[in-house]
Amino acid sequence: MRSWTYTELKQIVLNDLDLEDEDFISATEMLAYFNAGIDMVEAIIHNLYEDYFLEPTALALVNGTQDYNFPSTMYAHRVRKILYDNGSNKYEIRKIKRLGQIPDIQTGDNYRWLPIDTAASGKKIRLYPTSAETSSTNVIIWHIRNAKVLALDADVCDIPEFADVVVQFVKVRCYEKEGHPNTSKAMDDLRMMVTLMEATLTKMVDDENDELMEEDYSFYDDFDQS
Length: 226
Fold this sequence. Notes:
single chain, 4 helices, 4-stranded antiparallel β-sheet
């Protein structure tokens, strides 16, 4: 699968819309359009096949420490599994379902975890019992991550299968700002591309459940508002 840099994707838009010699849309605006397009595609992926963004991140245990940050790349604190493996002991660190279970957890037991959100520290992973070891490799968090935000020309779009949808989203935004007569046609093309993307993602679902909820296309209406 081809990896596209921001420079390459932007050039496609500039070439296709004949904007190379125009400054009506600033560089800052163009970048914002692309990241808005990535946000739209990302949201669809998370709704239909969030394992597209499944990522493992090591949790660095510190002896005597109970609370840990979630991975910085995590999307909406979606944890798939937390696994422990020190070579001789391997198990899933299970989430505590009932607070009443906490008093029964003793030092030396397998770890359990609880998501907390305090006013002082924000969202954290709290381990029970408190870590009795220091290790950067024993615990792996499998989680759903965010799509990468584009910032520099050399940055790579990490949704290569649907980069064309992002590009079409940007074209619609450019047309909308210019008041171009092709705006309506570009929006229709974007809708068709999104429909195809949804069909592709649905076939990727592990449980083979092909039933789709009716999608909300209200975000398209924003393009019609001047």
